[in-house]
Design brief:
single chain; alpha/beta; 10 helices; globular
Length: 250
């Protein structure tokens, strides 16, 4: 049985004072829950602030990206070591916004996954199809390509996969539990084939317009183990309700 895992991707929101307010509210409301793993992923500039606020609670810290190199002349980049230094345990890799706006490819995702794992971070690897890809019936081909390319040479311990259909992100158009489950089952099959029994512990999150009123229906699906939440993770009440609503009842 996999423990549910909810992560809040704050994207490019929250100055330090805003981050302090949000993280303290969450620490008070969901900071002691034991039956669920929760990670907050603020922007780089608020990582240390949030780390200090959530110290002593069960909330965990994650970053939204990292460099594939360990250190060096790479202006603007942030390494795994630096993320560990400010208290991160997780890192999101290959989010569709990075693929769409910043040239991320399956190859760069692969290099970043290797950097994260060798640096001691637990990666959350994002996959997902665009609307034209879904409409042309190529969803599973896209997911297979992303998994094949991204996970080449990657060990599966500590890995989390986030299935985020691009058409569901920030649109209010959540995938139906059945649509999500179909892709999650495909991902689970891919993982079983690639990793054998060790794959049983890998959690697969769903992301894309997750809200307090749709999370339970998603979580009840056999292969949905959690959620990667964007917009609704920026409000204390909605994120707390999502976390509380994701206790598994299967
Ligand atoms: P929304 O929850 O705002 O749709 O964003 C999902 C997402 O991209 C999380 O990484």
């Amino acid at each position: 049985m996999r423990k549910p895992f909810i992560a809040g991707n704050w994207k490019m929101y929250c100055t330090k004072p805003e981050a302090t307010k949000l993280a303290s509210g969450l620490a008070a409301s969901i900071g002691s829950l034991e039956e669920i793993d929760v990670a907050l992923c603020p922007p780089y500039t608020a990582l240390e602030t949030v780390h200090n606020v959530i110290a002593g609670t069960r909330l965990r810290l994650g970053a939204q990206d990292l460099a594939w190199e360990k250190e060096g002349a790479f202006t603007g980049e942030v390494s795994a070591l630096m993320l560990i230094d400010v208290g991160c345990e997780f890192v999101i890799i290959g989010h569709s916004e990075r693929r769409q706006f910043f040239g991320e490819t399956d190859q760069s995702v692969n290099r970043k996954l290797k950097a994260a794992i060798s640096g001691g971070l637990d990666p959350i690897m994002c996959v997902g199809e665009t609307l034209p890809e879904r409409e042309s019936g190529s969803t599973l081909d896209v997911i297979r390509r992303q998994l094949d390319g991204g996970l080449t040479g990657i060990a599966c311990e500590k890995l989390t996969i986030a299935y985020e259909p691009v058409w569901a992100i920030g649109t209010g158009r959540v995938a139906t539990p059945e649509q999500a489950q179909d892709v999650h089952a495909f991902i689970r099959g891919w993982l079983n084939h690639a990793y054998g029994p060790a794959a049983g512990g890998i959690r697969i999150q769903y992301g894309g317009s997750v809200k307090p009123d749709n999370v339970a229906g998603l979580m009840v699906q056999p292969d949905i183990d959690g959620a990667l939440v964007g917009g609704a993770s920026l409000k204390i009440e909605s994120f707390s309700d999502i976390v509380r609503g994701s206790t598994k009842r299967k």
